[in-house]
Amino acid sequence: MVKLFISLLILIIAVLAAVLLVQDDPGFVLIKYADFSLETSLAFGIVAVVVGGLLIQLFLRFLLSIWRLPTTLTKQSEKRRADKSRKLLNIGLIDLAEGRFEQAESNLLKFIDLAENPLINYLAAARAAQQQDKFDQRDNYLKAAHDVKPEAAIAIGVSQAELQLASRQTERALATLTHLRSVAPKHDYVLKLLAKVYYEIQEWSLLCDLLPEVRKKKLFKDEKLAKLEIKAFTGCLSEAAEREDESLDKAWAKIPKVYQTQADLILHYIDLVNRYSRDSKLIEQIVVKSINQQWNIDLLDYYGRLPVEDTTVQLATTEKWLQDYGSSDVLLLALGRICIRLKLWGKAQNYLEASIGIRPSVQSCFELANLLDSDELNEQQAACKYYRDGLELSLSNK
């Protein structure tokens, strides 16, 4: 339309120019060929030449359009199909998000040969196939995605690992992530997924090797990372304890100092030491050192029940904590138990009654009831009262 307007404008300008040119002297133009001759004014001749030129140009364009017609029709057809492919991609992604997985898979694969980025189509189709438990088809789509865009191997591999994890194909996911780790050792998300896989399959030693880098890069929130590390360290200690060499001590030494004060981890370590070596002196040293570093009632309760070689030293240590930290029901209960082992009956009774006075517990009530019911004190009526109190506390805690 614009070109036609320009052509008409040129024609009008030519006519006006011709009129202005010949207004003083109209002149003439003579065309003669053999016996044929044509004579006209100069103005008309100029206009005829311009009009003729324009007509010739239009005719040539018409011929060129006819010549290009097959190519033009092909391009228009491909454009329509590409537009439809783009539209189907959007529809397929919506279907996938809304849970219409079979329909999504079908829409994502239509006209995929004309898709602007077939990688997206194949990855989305793989997720749709996964939701239908079509795992072989899912893997075919992932392979096709790699074929159309091999430079996106990391992105495809990560998607494959995620899908394998979601379908509980943990061993396959491990193989995929191990390969990705070798190709892209600094890839944060690959590292995070690999840590999750090690956690799932309980490969504690391998997980412990990853944890320093995981912690450095802050790949998990603090609370989740702490849970992951405690579980990994616990597993590493258990694995080390099964070997007869000094692996347990070495595994404990490798654990960061901040975690060597965690009560659950310490108790697990102590349990392993007790189970495999029965070195009560070592256990006592570990517990005392841990409580001195960080006050913890779980360790304190364990220490009160721990039989040691020198119970007198144990009592002195615990009474020093009483002076340093003040009274608490758990500390007084521990003192009562230690005094019972030392056969300090009156002192044990005082500590146990003081513990119950702060906060009655099933353990303190039963410990005192057993002491009062013993041959040494023989206070059966008082013992019955504490047996009853302990039973009521036990029932109320259920």
List keywords for this structure.
single chain, Serine Threonine Protein Phosphatase 5, Tetratricopeptide repeat, 3% strand, mainly alpha, two-stranded antiparallel sheet
Summed up:
With 398 residues, this protein is mostly helical.
Class inferred from helices and paired strands: mainly alpha
Helix segment tally: 19
Which percent band covers the strand fraction? Answer: under 5%
What's the count of strands? 2
Distance between the termini: 88 Å
CATH architecture of the domain at 305-398: Alpha Horseshoe
Strand order of the largest sheet: 1-2
Care to describe what's here?
The chain is mainly α. The protein has a domain at 305-398: Serine Threonine Protein Phosphatase 5, Tetratricopeptide repeat (Alpha Horseshoe), CATH 1.25.40. The chain is 77% helix and 3% strand. It has 19 helices and two strands. A two-stranded antiparallel sheet has the order 1-2. Helix 10 (222-241) packs antiparallel against helix 11 and helix 13 runs antiparallel to helix 14 (297-305). The longest helix is centred in the first third of the chain and has 57 residues, at 42-98. It is rod-shaped. The relative contact order is 0.03. The model has no long low-confidence stretch (mean pLDDT 84).
